[in-house]
Design brief:
It is built from one helix and 34 strands. By secondary structure, the chain is mainly β. It has one domain: Methylamine Dehydrogenase, Chain H, CATH 2.130.10.10. A five-stranded antiparallel sheet has the order 1-7-6-5-4, with no helix packed on it. Strands 2-28-29-30-31 form a five-stranded mixed sheet, with no helix packed on it. Strands 3-34-33-32 form a four-stranded antiparallel sheet, with no helix packed on it.
Length: about 425
């Protein structure tokens, strides 16, 4: 595979620097939602909790442990620390670890993997490889994964890459779509699920025949196992432990699957049809010991209990038609976007799926939970809004202009080391949250 590598020397030391009538659930919950944590947390010392090394952060739930942030945005909006241009017209979000930020850009049908100084935005290294696009949907969509001094990239055409995080030197690469041909045509945006770390393995989703999901060794790139015969969708995988059973959960065209992460063996599956099954975007969300699944195009949004590997629908409703952004479970409420009757932000009671409130605007808002607040980014304007997460109604604390970018600002904001990182189709910016 033809590649180009360039290292930029910056010194011997890197300065480390979303009003609708309430939806009626089709099936009421028979027992309260457990609040026991079931998201698989990283092993102690495996990741720094003030970093954001992968899609949806260190605990895979878009929640930050940071406290003491500035909550008076109307009086004192977050200060912009730096901004750099993006040329890919795309949607790959950033990852931050060990003082560096990693993101994939594209120019002239060439993907550009960037390693930046997270404090200044200055480029440290870049690596390029050929990658065509599909306007107006840009190029690579998956968020980088950073782990153990390495950064893993998943291109829209199925290229899996591993780099030295400090230098950008390529360690290994494979084209998993070429190796595991798709059972059906790939979705319009091709491959969007972000890579996921599970111990010694990295999980990719190439959508191959009997290889929709592939686990590879993180050090060598060699296949450890492959599983699931389904067309892939856009939703990213998660690791969770509902009812104490550790499992990999994937949301694909044929439905939702629970897999044993050790060998890919199927534990359970449940169909979740929509008008366009390969266009399922929101990642499943862990709610206690249950799994929240969202969809759009007339599909259902609901909660599933997977006790004893026997999936049971707790409730379903169609009030929330979640198109792009994954919902946030925070302070015992589910907040997410809906396409109908308009692009609104919506809050659900996870016990029964009833709508608690709706807020006009905040179309397809990417969400982040931090310090008892929710930060939302409107995809059309780039406006960033802070709301109180501790109250049952919509309570806005402030907003500021955020980052411009020509609409479809799909990547959710992230936070690391007291800084808020936001990207649009044309720029990537860093703001001070303190």
């Amino acid at each position: 595979m033809k590649t180009v590598f360039r290292m930029i020397v910056v010194g011997s030391v890197l300065m480390v620097s979303q009003a609708l009538a309430q939806g009626t659930p089709s099936k009421p919950a028979e027992k309260p939602v457990s609040t026991e944590p079931a998201v698989a947390k990283p092993a102690k010392g495996q990741v720094k909790m003030d970093e954001w090394p992968c899609f949806r952060g260190p605990t895979h739930d878009a929640l930050s442990s940071m406290k003491g942030i500035n909550k008076d945005w109307n009086k004192t909006p977050p200060k912009e620390l730096w901004k750099v241009p993006m040329t890919d017209d795309g949607f790959a979000g950033p990852a931050v670890a060990d003082g560096m930020l990693f993101i994939v850009n594209n120019k002239d049908k060439t993907d550009i993997v960037l390693g930046l100084d997270a404090a200044t935005g200055k480029e440290i290294w870049e690596f390029t490889y050929p990658e065509g696009g599909h306007p107006p949907f840009g190029y690579t969509v998956a968020t980088p994964l950073v782990a153990g001094g390495k950064v893993y990239i998943w291109s829209r055409s199925g290229g899996a890459y591993c780099f030295n995080a400090k230098t950008g030197e390529k360690i290994w690469d494979r084209n998993l779509v070429a190796e595991y041909p798709a059972a059906a045509k790939l979705p319009d945006l091709k491959l969007a699920p972000s890579p996921l770390l599970d111990g010694q393995n990295v999980i990719f989703m190439p959508g191959g025949k009997d290889a929709c999901v592939v686990a590879v060794d993180k050090d060598t790139g060699k296949t450890v196992w492959k599983s699931v015969n389904s067309k892939v969708s856009y939703a990213s995988p998660i690791i969770a432990s509902p009812n104490g059973v550790r499992q990999l959960i994937v949301y694909v065209a044929d439905g939702v699957f629970g897999l044993d992460p050790k060998d890919g063996k199927q534990l359970w599956t449940i169909p979740w049809p929509t008008q366009y099954d390969d266009k399922k975007v929101p990642t499943p969300v862990v709610v206690g010991n249950r799994i929240f699944i969202a969809s759009t195009h007339g599909g259902d949004t609901g909660l599933v209990d997977v006790k004893d590997n026997k999936p049971t629908v707790v409730w379903k409703q169609k009030a929330m038609q979640n198109h792009v952004a994954t919902s946030l479970y925070y302070h015992d409420r589910l907040v997410g976007s809906t396409d109908t009757p308009a692009d609104w932000l919506m809050c659900l009671d996870p016990k029964d799926g009833k709508v608690l409130w709706t807020q006009p605007g905040l179309s397809n808002a990417g969400l982040l939970g931090i310090d008892d607040t929710i930060i939302a980014k409107d995809v059309n304007t780039g406006t960033l809004v802070m709301m109180d997460a501790t109250v049952p109604e919509y309570k806005e604390l402030g907003r500021f202009a955020g980052i411009e970018g020509g609409g479809m600002n799909w990547p959710a904001p992230i936070v690391a080391n007291g800084r808020l990182f936001v990207r649009s189709k044309t720029a990537l910016a860093c703001f001070d949250l303190k």
